[in-house]
Amino acid sequence: MSSQQLCVPVPIKDKEFLAELVEKGKDWTLLHGIARRSKDHFSHDTITFAPFLLFPSTFPETEFKKAKKIQTTLNQLMHTVAHDHQFLLNSLSEITNVDPFMARLVQIYQEILTEGVTQKVSLGLFRSDYMVDSPTGTIKQVEFNTIASSFGALTSILPNWHRQVLSLCGLHDKIDNIPLSNTLTGYASGILQAYDLYHSRIRSKSFVSPAILFVIEDNGFNVGDQRLLEFEIQRQAPHVRVIRRSLTDIGNHLQLGDRRRLYITGIEIAIVYYRAGYSPAAYYSELEWDARLQMERSLAIKCPSVQYQLAGSKKIQQELARPGILEKFITDPEELIAVRDVFTGLYSLDMNDPKSDDTIRLAIDEPSKFVLKPQREGGGNNLYDEDISEYLKKIKTSEERHAWILMDKIQPPSFKNYIVRPGFTEPTFSDVVSELGIFGVTIG
Protein backbone atom coordinates (compact mmCIF):
# COMPACT_ATOMS: atom_id res chain seq x y z
CA MET A 1 0.00 0.00 0.00
CA SER A 2 1.55 3.31 -1.08
CA SER A 3 1.49 6.38 1.16
CA GLN A 4 0.58 9.84 -0.17
CA GLN A 5 0.51 13.35 1.25
CA LEU A 6 -2.68 14.86 2.62
CA CYS A 7 -3.69 18.35 1.47
CA VAL A 8 -2.94 19.56 5.03
CA PRO A 9 0.66 19.27 6.27
CA VAL A 10 0.56 16.71 9.08
CA PRO A 11 1.32 16.01 11.83
CA ILE A 12 0.21 19.29 13.42
CA LYS A 13 3.14 20.26 15.63
CA ASP A 14 1.22 22.89 17.61
CA LYS A 15 -0.57 20.60 20.08
CA GLU A 16 -2.70 23.42 21.49
CA PHE A 17 -3.92 24.35 18.00
CA LEU A 18 -4.64 20.68 17.24
CA ALA A 19 -6.68 20.32 20.44
CA GLU A 20 -8.63 23.45 19.51
CA LEU A 21 -9.44 22.05 16.05
CA VAL A 22 -10.57 18.74 17.52
CA GLU A 23 -12.88 20.39 20.07
CA LYS A 24 -14.36 22.65 17.42
CA GLY A 25 -14.85 19.65 15.15
CA LYS A 26 -16.67 17.69 17.83
CA ASP A 27 -19.01 20.58 18.60
CA TRP A 28 -19.51 21.44 14.94
CA THR A 29 -20.49 17.91 13.97
CA LEU A 30 -22.88 17.54 16.91
CA LEU A 31 -24.55 20.87 16.23
CA HIS A 32 -24.97 20.08 12.52
CA GLY A 33 -26.46 16.59 12.94
CA ILE A 34 -23.42 14.43 12.21
CA ALA A 35 -24.47 12.33 15.15
CA ARG A 36 -25.50 8.88 16.27
CA ARG A 37 -26.67 7.09 19.39
CA SER A 38 -24.22 5.07 21.42
CA LYS A 39 -24.07 1.36 20.62
CA ASP A 40 -22.90 0.48 24.11
CA HIS A 41 -25.20 2.78 26.12
CA PHE A 42 -28.22 3.22 23.86
CA SER A 43 -30.66 5.91 24.93
CA HIS A 44 -33.26 7.95 23.07
CA ASP A 45 -32.25 10.94 25.18
CA THR A 46 -28.59 11.16 24.23
CA ILE A 47 -26.51 11.35 21.07
CA THR A 48 -22.81 11.63 20.35
CA PHE A 49 -20.94 12.78 17.27
CA ALA A 50 -20.20 10.21 14.58
CA PRO A 51 -16.50 9.39 14.07
CA PHE A 52 -14.92 11.63 11.45
CA LEU A 53 -11.60 12.58 9.90
CA LEU A 54 -10.34 15.95 11.03
CA PHE A 55 -9.08 16.88 7.56
CA PRO A 56 -10.44 16.13 4.08
CA SER A 57 -9.02 13.21 2.15
CA THR A 58 -7.21 13.54 -1.16
CA PHE A 59 -8.76 11.92 -4.24
CA PRO A 60 -7.71 12.24 -7.92
CA GLU A 61 -10.05 14.64 -9.70
CA THR A 62 -10.17 12.72 -12.99
CA GLU A 63 -11.24 9.53 -11.22
CA PHE A 64 -13.82 11.40 -9.14
CA LYS A 65 -15.38 12.82 -12.32
CA LYS A 66 -15.30 9.38 -13.93
CA ALA A 67 -17.24 7.88 -11.00
CA LYS A 68 -19.85 10.64 -11.17
CA LYS A 69 -20.25 10.29 -14.92
CA ILE A 70 -21.01 6.57 -14.94
CA GLN A 71 -23.49 6.62 -12.03
CA THR A 72 -26.53 7.10 -14.27
CA THR A 73 -25.36 4.18 -16.41
CA LEU A 74 -25.01 2.02 -13.28
CA ASN A 75 -28.47 3.10 -12.08
CA GLN A 76 -29.95 1.96 -15.38
CA LEU A 77 -27.92 -1.24 -15.31
CA MET A 78 -29.25 -2.20 -11.87
CA HIS A 79 -32.81 -1.41 -12.92
CA THR A 80 -32.49 -3.55 -16.06
CA VAL A 81 -30.85 -6.44 -14.19
CA ALA A 82 -33.54 -6.31 -11.49
CA HIS A 83 -36.22 -6.80 -14.14
CA ASP A 84 -34.51 -9.67 -15.93
CA HIS A 85 -36.24 -12.36 -13.89
CA GLN A 86 -34.52 -15.32 -15.50
CA PHE A 87 -31.05 -13.84 -15.08
CA LEU A 88 -31.68 -13.09 -11.39
CA LEU A 89 -33.08 -16.52 -10.59
CA ASN A 90 -30.45 -18.42 -12.56
CA SER A 91 -27.61 -16.44 -11.01
CA LEU A 92 -28.87 -16.98 -7.47
CA SER A 93 -30.06 -20.59 -7.84
CA GLU A 94 -27.03 -22.21 -6.15
CA ILE A 95 -26.94 -19.70 -3.28
CA THR A 96 -30.49 -20.49 -2.19
CA ASN A 97 -29.41 -24.01 -1.24
CA VAL A 98 -26.85 -22.81 1.31
CA ASP A 99 -27.91 -19.30 2.37
CA PRO A 100 -31.29 -19.27 4.17
CA PHE A 101 -31.50 -15.47 4.14
CA MET A 102 -31.03 -15.18 0.39
CA ALA A 103 -33.36 -18.15 -0.08
CA ARG A 104 -36.18 -16.30 1.71
CA LEU A 105 -35.69 -13.17 -0.38
CA VAL A 106 -35.77 -15.24 -3.56
CA GLN A 107 -38.87 -17.05 -2.29
CA ILE A 108 -40.64 -13.73 -1.74
CA TYR A 109 -39.58 -12.61 -5.20
CA GLN A 110 -40.95 -15.79 -6.79
CA GLU A 111 -44.24 -15.45 -4.90
CA ILE A 112 -44.64 -11.91 -6.18
CA LEU A 113 -43.93 -13.01 -9.75
CA THR A 114 -46.36 -15.91 -9.48
CA GLU A 115 -49.31 -13.92 -8.17
CA GLY A 116 -48.56 -10.82 -10.23
CA VAL A 117 -46.76 -7.60 -9.30
CA THR A 118 -49.18 -5.13 -7.71
CA GLN A 119 -46.85 -2.11 -7.83
CA LYS A 120 -44.60 -2.15 -10.87
CA VAL A 121 -42.78 1.05 -9.96
CA SER A 122 -39.64 0.74 -7.82
CA LEU A 123 -37.58 3.46 -6.17
CA GLY A 124 -33.83 3.04 -5.96
CA LEU A 125 -31.56 5.09 -3.70
CA PHE A 126 -28.22 3.62 -4.68
CA ARG A 127 -24.56 4.07 -3.76
CA SER A 128 -21.62 2.81 -5.78
CA ASP A 129 -18.40 2.51 -3.76
CA TYR A 130 -14.87 2.81 -5.16
CA MET A 131 -11.23 2.83 -4.13
CA VAL A 132 -8.28 4.05 -6.13
CA ASP A 133 -6.06 1.13 -7.09
CA SER A 134 -2.46 2.30 -6.57
CA PRO A 135 -0.79 0.17 -9.28
CA THR A 136 -3.03 1.65 -12.00
CA GLY A 137 -4.06 4.96 -10.42
CA THR A 138 -7.67 4.26 -11.44
CA ILE A 139 -10.86 3.64 -9.48
CA LYS A 140 -12.16 0.12 -8.98
CA GLN A 141 -15.65 -0.67 -7.73
CA VAL A 142 -15.88 -2.19 -4.27
CA GLU A 143 -19.62 -2.81 -4.37
CA PHE A 144 -22.97 -1.42 -5.47
CA ASN A 145 -25.49 -0.86 -2.68
CA THR A 146 -29.20 -1.05 -3.44
CA ILE A 147 -30.69 -1.21 0.08
CA ALA A 148 -30.21 1.12 3.07
CA SER A 149 -27.47 3.06 1.26
CA SER A 150 -26.39 5.13 4.22
CA PHE A 151 -24.40 8.30 4.97
CA GLY A 152 -25.92 10.32 2.15
CA ALA A 153 -27.07 12.90 4.68
CA LEU A 154 -23.93 12.99 6.82
CA THR A 155 -21.60 13.24 3.85
CA SER A 156 -23.64 16.12 2.45
CA ILE A 157 -22.88 18.13 5.58
CA LEU A 158 -19.37 17.06 6.67
CA PRO A 159 -17.65 18.81 3.70
CA ASN A 160 -18.75 22.11 5.26
CA TRP A 161 -16.66 21.27 8.32
CA HIS A 162 -13.71 20.42 6.09
CA ARG A 163 -14.04 23.79 4.34
CA GLN A 164 -14.03 25.43 7.74
CA VAL A 165 -11.01 23.52 9.03
CA LEU A 166 -9.04 24.39 5.90
CA SER A 167 -9.88 28.03 6.54
CA LEU A 168 -8.77 27.73 10.17
CA CYS A 169 -5.47 26.28 8.92
CA GLY A 170 -5.02 29.18 6.51
CA LEU A 171 -5.38 26.95 3.44
CA HIS A 172 -7.96 29.15 1.72
CA ASP A 173 -6.73 28.17 -1.74
CA LYS A 174 -7.74 24.55 -1.09
CA ILE A 175 -11.36 25.22 -0.15
CA ASP A 176 -12.74 25.28 -3.70
CA ASN A 177 -11.26 21.82 -4.28
CA ILE A 178 -13.85 20.28 -1.96
CA PRO A 179 -16.79 19.32 -4.21
CA LEU A 180 -20.37 20.12 -3.35
CA SER A 181 -22.55 17.20 -2.27
CA ASN A 182 -26.29 17.31 -2.91
CA THR A 183 -27.11 13.77 -1.84
CA LEU A 184 -29.36 14.83 1.04
CA THR A 185 -31.55 17.07 -1.10
CA GLY A 186 -31.37 14.64 -4.03
CA TYR A 187 -32.44 11.63 -1.98
CA ALA A 188 -35.32 13.56 -0.45
CA SER A 189 -36.37 14.83 -3.86
CA GLY A 190 -36.27 11.31 -5.29
CA ILE A 191 -38.46 9.95 -2.51
CA LEU A 192 -40.93 12.80 -3.01
CA GLN A 193 -41.05 12.28 -6.77
CA ALA A 194 -41.97 8.65 -6.15
CA TYR A 195 -44.51 9.82 -3.54
CA ASP A 196 -46.11 12.21 -6.05
CA LEU A 197 -46.23 9.41 -8.60
CA TYR A 198 -48.13 7.20 -6.15
CA HIS A 199 -50.42 10.04 -5.09
CA SER A 200 -51.26 11.05 -8.67
CA ARG A 201 -52.02 7.51 -9.80
CA ILE A 202 -53.74 6.24 -6.66
CA ARG A 203 -56.45 8.50 -5.34
CA SER A 204 -56.44 8.08 -1.59
CA LYS A 205 -59.74 7.05 0.00
CA SER A 206 -58.87 9.08 3.07
CA PHE A 207 -58.92 12.83 3.53
CA VAL A 208 -55.47 12.41 5.05
CA SER A 209 -52.57 12.15 2.59
CA PRO A 210 -50.65 8.86 2.62
CA ALA A 211 -47.38 8.69 4.53
CA ILE A 212 -43.80 7.64 3.87
CA LEU A 213 -42.67 4.68 5.99
CA PHE A 214 -39.06 4.37 7.15
CA VAL A 215 -38.41 0.73 8.08
CA ILE A 216 -35.85 0.95 10.89
CA GLU A 217 -33.97 -1.25 13.34
CA ASP A 218 -35.36 -1.65 16.85
CA ASN A 219 -32.51 0.29 18.43
CA GLY A 220 -30.82 1.82 15.43
CA PHE A 221 -27.87 4.02 16.33
CA ASN A 222 -27.48 5.77 12.95
CA VAL A 223 -30.15 8.30 13.84
CA GLY A 224 -28.43 11.39 12.41
CA ASP A 225 -28.28 10.11 8.84
CA GLN A 226 -31.90 8.92 8.93
CA ARG A 227 -33.46 11.88 10.71
CA LEU A 228 -31.70 14.44 8.53
CA LEU A 229 -33.24 12.76 5.47
CA GLU A 230 -36.66 12.68 7.15
CA PHE A 231 -36.43 16.37 8.06
CA GLU A 232 -35.27 17.29 4.55
CA ILE A 233 -38.30 15.48 3.10
CA GLN A 234 -40.55 17.50 5.36
CA ARG A 235 -38.69 20.73 4.54
CA GLN A 236 -39.34 20.14 0.84
CA ALA A 237 -42.93 18.92 1.40
CA PRO A 238 -44.31 19.99 4.80
CA HIS A 239 -47.65 18.29 4.12
CA VAL A 240 -46.07 14.82 3.82
CA ARG A 241 -45.94 12.71 6.96
CA VAL A 242 -43.01 10.38 7.67
CA ILE A 243 -43.40 7.53 10.15
CA ARG A 244 -40.72 5.15 11.48
CA ARG A 245 -41.45 1.54 12.37
CA SER A 246 -39.46 -1.65 12.90
CA LEU A 247 -40.30 -4.82 11.00
CA THR A 248 -41.76 -6.22 14.22
CA ASP A 249 -44.03 -3.19 14.67
CA ILE A 250 -45.08 -3.44 11.05
CA GLY A 251 -45.84 -7.15 11.39
CA ASN A 252 -48.12 -6.43 14.33
CA HIS A 253 -50.02 -3.56 12.71
CA LEU A 254 -49.97 -4.13 8.95
CA GLN A 255 -53.14 -4.40 6.88
CA LEU A 256 -53.76 -4.62 3.16
CA GLY A 257 -56.88 -2.83 1.96
CA ASP A 258 -58.60 -2.67 -1.39
CA ARG A 259 -56.25 -2.90 -4.38
CA ARG A 260 -53.69 -4.00 -1.75
CA ARG A 261 -53.21 -0.53 -0.34
CA LEU A 262 -50.80 -0.74 2.58
CA TYR A 263 -51.90 0.51 6.00
CA ILE A 264 -49.88 0.69 9.22
CA THR A 265 -52.12 1.36 12.28
CA GLY A 266 -54.67 2.78 9.85
CA ILE A 267 -52.22 5.10 8.05
CA GLU A 268 -52.01 4.59 4.30
CA ILE A 269 -48.42 4.16 3.09
CA ALA A 270 -47.24 5.46 -0.26
CA ILE A 271 -43.49 4.72 0.05
CA VAL A 272 -41.74 1.96 1.99
CA TYR A 273 -38.12 3.03 2.55
CA TYR A 274 -35.92 0.29 4.02
CA ARG A 275 -33.19 1.33 6.43
CA ALA A 276 -33.37 -2.19 7.90
CA GLY A 277 -34.07 -5.61 6.44
CA TYR A 278 -30.76 -5.99 4.63
CA SER A 279 -29.47 -8.74 6.95
CA PRO A 280 -30.93 -11.73 8.85
CA ALA A 281 -30.64 -9.81 12.14
CA ALA A 282 -33.82 -7.85 11.33
CA TYR A 283 -35.97 -10.97 10.96
CA TYR A 284 -36.46 -12.43 14.43
CA SER A 285 -39.36 -14.69 13.46
CA GLU A 286 -41.94 -15.43 10.80
CA LEU A 287 -43.74 -12.23 11.86
CA GLU A 288 -41.02 -10.06 10.31
CA TRP A 289 -40.74 -12.22 7.20
CA ASP A 290 -44.49 -12.05 6.69
CA ALA A 291 -44.34 -8.28 7.11
CA ARG A 292 -41.73 -8.12 4.35
CA LEU A 293 -43.85 -10.32 2.07
CA GLN A 294 -47.01 -8.29 2.64
CA MET A 295 -45.23 -5.02 1.95
CA GLU A 296 -43.84 -6.48 -1.29
CA ARG A 297 -47.36 -7.59 -2.24
CA SER A 298 -48.78 -4.14 -1.51
CA LEU A 299 -49.53 -1.14 -3.69
CA ALA A 300 -46.90 0.99 -1.93
CA ILE A 301 -43.74 1.86 -3.85
CA LYS A 302 -40.80 0.05 -2.30
CA CYS A 303 -37.30 1.45 -1.85
CA PRO A 304 -35.93 -0.98 -2.72
CA SER A 305 -38.26 -3.62 -4.10
CA VAL A 306 -37.07 -7.16 -3.42
CA GLN A 307 -35.75 -7.50 -6.97
CA TYR A 308 -33.63 -4.36 -6.52
CA GLN A 309 -32.24 -5.84 -3.30
CA LEU A 310 -31.37 -9.10 -5.07
CA ALA A 311 -29.78 -7.21 -7.97
CA GLY A 312 -27.43 -5.54 -5.49
CA SER A 313 -26.11 -8.83 -4.10
CA LYS A 314 -22.43 -9.72 -4.37
CA LYS A 315 -23.26 -12.72 -6.55
CA ILE A 316 -24.91 -10.52 -9.17
CA GLN A 317 -21.92 -8.18 -9.09
CA GLN A 318 -19.69 -11.16 -9.78
CA GLU A 319 -21.95 -12.49 -12.54
CA LEU A 320 -21.94 -9.12 -14.31
CA ALA A 321 -18.14 -9.24 -14.39
CA ARG A 322 -18.17 -12.48 -16.42
CA PRO A 323 -17.10 -12.11 -20.05
CA GLY A 324 -20.06 -11.33 -22.31
CA ILE A 325 -22.63 -10.77 -19.54
CA LEU A 326 -22.46 -6.99 -19.25
CA GLU A 327 -23.05 -6.72 -22.99
CA LYS A 328 -26.56 -8.14 -22.51
CA PHE A 329 -27.55 -5.12 -20.44
CA ILE A 330 -25.52 -2.21 -21.84
CA THR A 331 -25.62 -1.61 -25.59
CA ASP A 332 -23.78 1.72 -25.83
CA PRO A 333 -20.10 0.87 -26.56
CA GLU A 334 -18.67 3.83 -24.61
CA GLU A 335 -20.82 3.14 -21.57
CA LEU A 336 -19.90 -0.53 -21.72
CA ILE A 337 -16.17 0.23 -21.71
CA ALA A 338 -16.56 2.78 -18.90
CA VAL A 339 -18.40 0.35 -16.63
CA ARG A 340 -16.15 -2.61 -17.34
CA ASP A 341 -13.13 -0.40 -16.67
CA VAL A 342 -14.15 0.09 -13.02
CA PHE A 343 -14.71 -3.62 -12.39
CA THR A 344 -11.96 -5.47 -10.58
CA GLY A 345 -11.45 -9.23 -10.70
CA LEU A 346 -14.50 -11.07 -9.36
CA TYR A 347 -14.58 -14.87 -9.17
CA SER A 348 -17.25 -17.49 -8.68
CA LEU A 349 -16.72 -20.28 -6.17
CA ASP A 350 -19.59 -22.36 -7.55
CA MET A 351 -18.86 -26.06 -7.83
CA ASN A 352 -20.24 -26.13 -11.37
CA ASP A 353 -17.73 -23.47 -12.46
CA PRO A 354 -14.73 -25.32 -13.96
CA LYS A 355 -12.34 -22.51 -12.95
CA SER A 356 -13.44 -22.18 -9.33
CA ASP A 357 -11.23 -24.97 -7.92
CA ASP A 358 -8.16 -23.25 -9.37
CA THR A 359 -9.36 -19.95 -7.95
CA ILE A 360 -9.71 -21.48 -4.48
CA ARG A 361 -6.25 -23.03 -4.63
CA LEU A 362 -4.74 -19.68 -5.62
CA ALA A 363 -6.57 -17.85 -2.83
CA ILE A 364 -5.44 -20.40 -0.24
CA ASP A 365 -1.81 -19.97 -1.37
CA GLU A 366 -1.89 -16.18 -1.79
CA PRO A 367 -4.75 -14.87 0.36
CA SER A 368 -3.36 -11.32 0.62
CA LYS A 369 -4.33 -10.76 -3.01
CA PHE A 370 -8.07 -11.30 -2.38
CA VAL A 371 -11.15 -10.45 -0.36
CA LEU A 372 -13.72 -13.16 0.42
CA LYS A 373 -17.27 -11.81 0.42
CA PRO A 374 -20.62 -13.32 1.50
CA GLN A 375 -24.06 -12.19 0.37
CA ARG A 376 -24.43 -9.67 3.20
CA GLU A 377 -24.75 -5.91 3.57
CA GLY A 378 -23.91 -3.73 6.54
CA GLY A 379 -20.14 -4.22 6.81
CA GLY A 380 -17.96 -6.46 8.92
CA ASN A 381 -18.71 -9.66 6.99
CA ASN A 382 -15.72 -9.96 4.66
CA LEU A 383 -12.65 -12.14 5.25
CA TYR A 384 -9.03 -11.13 4.61
CA ASP A 385 -5.51 -12.56 4.56
CA GLU A 386 -5.01 -15.79 6.52
CA ASP A 387 -8.69 -15.92 7.46
CA ILE A 388 -9.36 -16.53 3.77
CA SER A 389 -6.99 -19.50 3.65
CA GLU A 390 -8.42 -21.07 6.78
CA TYR A 391 -12.03 -20.63 5.70
CA LEU A 392 -11.56 -21.83 2.14
CA LYS A 393 -9.80 -24.96 3.39
CA LYS A 394 -12.84 -25.58 5.54
CA ILE A 395 -15.49 -25.14 2.81
CA LYS A 396 -13.67 -26.09 -0.40
CA THR A 397 -15.48 -29.44 -0.65
CA SER A 398 -18.78 -28.10 0.72
CA GLU A 399 -21.71 -26.51 -1.09
CA GLU A 400 -21.35 -23.65 1.38
CA ARG A 401 -18.80 -22.14 -0.98
CA HIS A 402 -21.70 -21.15 -3.25
CA ALA A 403 -22.61 -18.45 -0.72
CA TRP A 404 -19.32 -16.59 -1.25
CA ILE A 405 -17.49 -14.77 -4.02
CA LEU A 406 -13.83 -13.88 -4.28
CA MET A 407 -12.64 -10.41 -5.32
CA ASP A 408 -9.20 -9.10 -6.19
CA LYS A 409 -8.00 -6.96 -3.31
CA ILE A 410 -7.83 -3.31 -4.33
CA GLN A 411 -4.64 -1.59 -3.19
CA PRO A 412 -5.58 2.00 -2.29
CA PRO A 413 -3.04 4.65 -1.31
CA SER A 414 -2.91 5.58 2.36
CA PHE A 415 -2.75 9.00 3.99
CA LYS A 416 -1.90 10.21 7.45
CA ASN A 417 -4.91 11.85 9.11
CA TYR A 418 -6.49 12.38 12.50
CA ILE A 419 -9.43 10.14 13.39
CA VAL A 420 -11.78 11.79 15.89
CA ARG A 421 -13.89 9.31 17.88
CA PRO A 422 -16.33 9.62 20.78
CA GLY A 423 -14.81 8.67 24.12
CA PHE A 424 -11.23 9.52 23.14
CA THR A 425 -9.67 12.65 24.61
CA GLU A 426 -7.14 12.85 21.80
CA PRO A 427 -7.48 12.08 18.09
CA THR A 428 -5.76 9.04 16.62
CA PHE A 429 -3.02 9.95 14.14
CA SER A 430 -3.04 7.05 11.73
CA ASP A 431 -2.78 5.78 8.17
CA VAL A 432 -6.20 5.86 6.55
CA VAL A 433 -7.55 4.91 3.12
CA SER A 434 -10.34 6.60 1.19
CA GLU A 435 -13.46 4.99 -0.20
CA LEU A 436 -15.55 7.13 -2.54
CA GLY A 437 -19.32 6.69 -2.50
CA ILE A 438 -21.35 8.05 -5.43
CA PHE A 439 -25.08 8.21 -4.78
CA GLY A 440 -27.83 7.85 -7.37
CA VAL A 441 -31.61 7.82 -7.64
CA THR A 442 -33.78 5.86 -10.04
CA ILE A 443 -37.56 5.51 -10.37
CA GLY A 444 -38.90 2.97 -12.82
Helix/strand class: alpha+beta
How many helices does DSSP assign? 14
Strand portion, in percent?
15-25%
How many strand segments? 19
End-to-end Cα distance: 41 Å
Work out the helicity level. 25-40%
Query: Average pLDDT value?
Result: 94
How is the main sheet built? Answer: 6 strands, mixed
Radius of gyration: 23 Å
From the spread of the alpha carbons, the general shape counts as globular
Low-confidence stretches: none
Structural commentary:
The protein is α+β, with helices and mostly antiparallel strands. It has 14 helices and 19 strands. Helix 9 links the parallel strand 11 and strand 12. Helix 6 (183-201) crosses helix 7.
Summarize the structure.
By secondary structure, the chain is α+β, with helices and mostly antiparallel strands.
Task: Please supply descriptive tags for the structure shown above.
single chain; six-stranded mixed beta sheet; four-stranded mixed beta sheet; 14 helices; 39% helix; 20% strand
